[in-house]
Amino acid sequence: MVEDEVDLAELVAFNLREAGHEVVTAGTGASALAEIKRARPDLVVLDVMLPDISGLEVCRRLRRERRDVPVVMLTAKGEEVDRIVGFEVGADDYVVKPFSPRELVLRVDAILRRTSRAAPPTEDSPEPIQIGVLLLDVAAHRVDVEGQEVHLTALEFRLLLDLASRRGRVQSRDRLLERVWGYSKGVETRTVDTHVKRLREKLGAASKYIETVRGVGYRMQSS
Ligand code: CA
Fold first, then answer.
1. pLDDT above 70 coverage of the chain, percent
2. Nearest to residue 44, comparing CAs of 84, 88, 98, 100?
3. Chain mean position to CA 147
């Protein structure tokens, strides 16, 4: 738990401990990086505003060493959200302050459940999915648009794969939150829309295949 506001850090740490987690706190970016190296946490809750280096920079440096550790960012400013969930920083989710500690604990639990799940049984290498100029090679974990590789975060890849494997059918935000993020029903978040927006930006010419179904969710075109 990385946050320099001591009261908030302690409140969150208390709630996480109550939920059965072991928590290490850090109040600066530098001490966070040192603690992450030492304690090797399963997940990092990271505030954007830190007294030395920004939480975004901490996340970037952390990603160089531990690409897969889930990160939930705490932010006070909505405009940072694009960078937070984007490839530049690649956080799994974000929570806008002020937030309820209970809500944060729900998300942390859900993400840890997802990442600790045993690896799925090995399938025969699944066939690549081709939709127009979009090629999704599941076995190679690779996405191409018009023959050019597009670099997606792990979460963006899961989101795209989820939509593409159910193409032609509308997927509600709740179902996407359940399957892609591992959240249970009733978690209030704009994270689906934010991630779809980023995903579309990256997909360029293929972005039009992800259709918004007003009031419901998203649908991948079937061809
Ligand atoms: Ca702070």
1. 88
2. 84
3. 26
Confirm if 29 and 55 have CB atoms less than 8 A apart.
yes
Pick from 34-38, 86-90, 152-156, 210-214: least confident: 86-90
pLDDT at 121: 44
| pLDDT given at position 127 | 83
Could you tell me the two tokens for 165? 């494997």
Among residues 39, 90, 32, 27, the alpha carbon closest in space to that of 64 is found at: 90
C-alpha 167 to ligand 1 mean position (Å): 41
3-state SS of 151-172 is CCCHHHHHHHHHHHHCCCCEEE
* Closest to 17 in 3D by CA, of 104, 125, 89: 104
Distance 51 CA to ligand 1 centre (A): 7
CA of 57 to the centre of ligand 1 (A): 14
- Distance between CA 9 and CA 152 in Å, rounded? 31
Q: Give per-residue pLDDT as tens, 38-66.
A: 989 999 999 999 999 999 999 989 888 87
Question: Which domains are present in the chain?
Answer: 6-117 (3.40.50.2300), 129-220 (1.10.10.10)
Centroid of ligand 1 to alpha carbon of 94 (angstroms):
14
